[in-house]
Amino acid sequence: MSKQSAEQAAVIPRREREKTVKGRIPDVEWLFGYGETKKAQGDKFLTKLLRRDWLMVVYSTLIYLLQFAPVWVLPLITSDVIDTLTLRPDGYATRLVIDAAILFVLLVQNVPSTMWRSSVMNRWIRKTTAEIRSGVIRKLQRLSITYHKEIEEGRVQSKLLRDIESVTGYFTHFMNSLIPAIIGAVISACIAVWKSPLIALFFIVLIPLNILLVKLFRKPVRQGHRDFRAENEQLSSKLTTTLQMLTLTKAHGLIEQEGMEVDEKIHSVERAGVHLDKTNAFFGSVSWMTSQLCSAICLFVCVLLCIKGYVTIGEVVLFQSLFASISSSVLSLVNAFPSLTAGKEAVRSLSEIVCATDIETDDGDIPVPQIHGDVAFENVCYHYPNEEKNVVENFSFHVKQGERIAVVGSSGSGKSTLMNLLIGLLAPTDGRILIDGTPLTDLPLQSYRHFISVVPQNSILFSGTIRENITYGMRRYSEKRLQRAVEDSAVSEFLPSMPHGLDTQVGERGDKLSGGQKQRVSIARALVRDPRILILDEATSALDNVSEYHVQRAIEKLVENRTTFIVAHRLSTIRNADRIIVMDEGRLVETGTYEELIALNGKFAELDKLSRIREAEA
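Above: the chain's sequence. Below: its structure in token form.
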């Protein structure tokens, strides 16, 4: 994106941007029961979804009635054919032809009606799944950096992959199993009552028996799914950590130990899965046995009534077919219970993300046509949630447009927190930050961040080409602007050794590039955006001397005519800073130029001495 296009995007009113995003990615918080108990979140998900899409439910149900008409009509025709052949009344041949014609039409229409309903249902289910997946990801993007530090990456991946699929299965089972089973049971029961209210009693008895079974098995099935989901999340988290630590694991000879720990997690998932499978199998077998016993009793009662002359042979077949149909429907309802329980647990799991309240504050609605880079901190304080001690304490400082400000201090002094406050990743718990005289809280963060670039200590690259990493997130850019960024960042110095130049794949996390090369790509990414405020977060501390030399040259180009904040580890790299901020335990304790602070012989002089010792030792 060019500077002009960035400015055009920045002046879009916040409400219009939200309207555009919401039109593309619908909000799903209300589906997961925002503000409700965990139990209500699971129970009300389907209710809310069906209430929203009730027209689609009615539409698909009507198609279902047409699709499965042969299932309910076939027993009636079979009964009529048997009685017609047995009794042979006048015109029985014509009657048989009519039965055959009706059955033929109903059977043939099943193919197009099945395809019709499948198309309607699948499109609806896939659309809803996409909404949920997009909504969950959107919520993750809105959650604060504090939330993301507290939740394990593996758990998030498990929720995004496994739980969303379980929610899809929950919805699918309800529409393709539960509703059809209820309709089938009701229609079969109505036909039975119409033919013989006495025999219909067997149909009615079957329902409370299966309801009793569901109540008996509800708790162990639910607990089994809950334990299985929890073990899967822990395994996913462990696998993520294992892959991230693979180099260190090999270097320290810990492969066997790490493998044993992973195996232990895998066996925990296996044990939880086996226990769940046993519970589901026992539940299913008991349900099937109950259904078959009732079916056998119904058969012999019908035979007895036929011998007594109360029903015909055709009606015996009819009642047995109807009972088999209703038994199948009730059994489908019962067998769907474990899947529905798993779906409810998945809803509750996703609700931990969707209904989380630790959201990044973005209430600003003042358009941002341009940022010049004047920054003022006024009595800024910050403490993390559930902690009382401030990590930034009464910080006040004014930075003029175009100044180079170095921020130094020992580990834990609040340097990174201060930069996160400036970026807007954290919001001050007291005081305020002004950008060009406007409170940061009044600016829409997404527009404001168009004018900021950050070069972190550890370069963040993704699997793609060098070009894609430099222009990340930019829909439009000029080749001239890109080439200038490549030259100024010294990326051009190592491009000849790349097999495909800018279009060379960098590998996952940029692993095919050296540390210095990755850092120069990060600098090119910052340069191509032409930021007004630049943050260099210890951009050279992890590099060797040769790489640092190239990166320092690139940084000199990068900081020209920009308000720059340099968080420094090696203090020798900040001699050219206009002013240096020295922090200690969240407070600003000293400020001045490099020479002024050395002459002061205070905290900075102490840090400088330690820095020189470390560099000499290195």
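The first strand starts at residue 375 and ends at 382.
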